# Entry
Amino acid sequence: MDKSSIRATILNEISKTEKAVSDYKELTKPISPNNAIGRVSRMDAINNRSVNEASLRQAEIKLTNLQRALSKLDDPDFGICLKCKQHIPIGRILIRPESFLCVNCAS
Ligand SMILES: [Zn+2]
# Structure
């Protein structure tokens, strides 16, 4: 894969992740204590909210890592395993952009 298609792929992933972050932010807005939903619904809302908060944190971390990967795209050693110097597949870079090791060296 050449750099420009890797860049396009990362940018696409960034925009999907940004969308996810804004969706989760919407879902984790504070729940008003005096809104009309019943007590059980309120417990549900609070439970869902903590799940969504965890997802929001993960999406934010992913976004940071993707942006870091993008900023390193022009580095001569981008996509090269720090340990064994083999090329890391783009699929892995997108799933684990924070990893600068190939699957073999990371395990
Ligand atoms: Zn390696």
The pocket of zinc ion is lined by residues 81, 83-84, 86, 101-102, 104-105 (CB under 6 Å). The two ends are 24 Å apart (CA to CA). Residues 3-75 form one domain.
